[in-house]
Amino acid sequence: MKIPGQKQKKSNDFFQNVYDVTCLIPYGRVTSYGAIARYLGSGRSARMVGWALNVCHTRPEFIPAHRVVNRNGLLTGKRHFGNSSTMKQLLENEGIIIDNDCILNFSERFWDPSKELN
DNA sequence: ATTCTGACAGCAA
DNA sequence: TTTGCTGCCAGAA
Question: Is the CB of A68 under 7 A from strand B?
Answer without folding.
Answer: yes
